[in-house]
Amino acid sequence: MRVRDGFLLTATCCVLVSCSSSRHDPTEHYYLVAANIKVPYWQTAGAGLVQAANDIKVAADLVGPDNYDPAAEHEAFQHALGKKPTGLMVQATDVKVLRPDIDAAVAQGIPVITIDSDDPASKRLLFIGTNNHQAGLTGGRLAAKLTGGKANVVIYTIPNQPNLEERMHGYKDAFAENPGMKIVQVVDMKGEEGTTFDATKEILGNAKMKPDVFVCLEAIACKVVADVLNREHATGKVVVAMDTDHGTLDWIQKGVINATIAQKPYTMAYFGLQLLDDIHHSKAPLQTGANNTFDTLPAFVDTGTTMVDKSNVDEYIKALDAATAKKP
At 75, which helix (H) or strand (E)? Predict the structure, then answer.
């Protein structure tokens, strides 16, 4: 870790080569801009960025605030843009805040790819990430199966973040297939563990609520939900999480969380950097939107998901630790 000009940076890679056979110039430098970069999800993405940077021998940094703060992410993007980067990847959290940044970068000839969360109305070249609607469908159908299609559901999310909105639509569509599944409360957890903890305590203390299912649309909420359920001895609840925070995986091992939908942030960052590098060296005009039949870039690259439950959680933890281990 290092601090540069007021921003917390995760020092990912600065591997430069000067041999004449390399196509890379020593000034090439890529950035991945995200919010909440200290959480395991983005640390895993950072590991993918490191590996890709090592493989193609360029410099790359993961930058952004260490909590959920779209305004601070905007500042980190502006800071990176001021460095005249070779290319940028960005998590589109609040599109109203970040869209002008994306469009300004592309207008300067800098290729921009969105990962994890998309803004298709911007001039980004393409999106690399999860089919978030499908992820919501998967989670919703699992919750319905585990409860016999009849349950009161509480959902934790961050409003207006595109990927989370798409997951919400997926859950609602799954519940429309099972009319007995009722969403009784949607919690704005604000990207904070403390807010999640307090809200869950309040929900469990409300005798009229009687929730059967707790669903988390983002990475950090469900480990907190599981902790509160355990403290309050609230057994028999179904908990469906998102992503692979170690705390989430631990609660799956303990049987409090039923399953989590694991994304592939390592793959997103790894492939994204390689693709940005290819785009830069192609010297072709930047294509925005990828809406033409003869575009050379897709509009969306689906990196896929994996359902992790008690049957495969031990194996998944081993693979995750191996992939994110610091290498000499």
Answer: helix 70-82
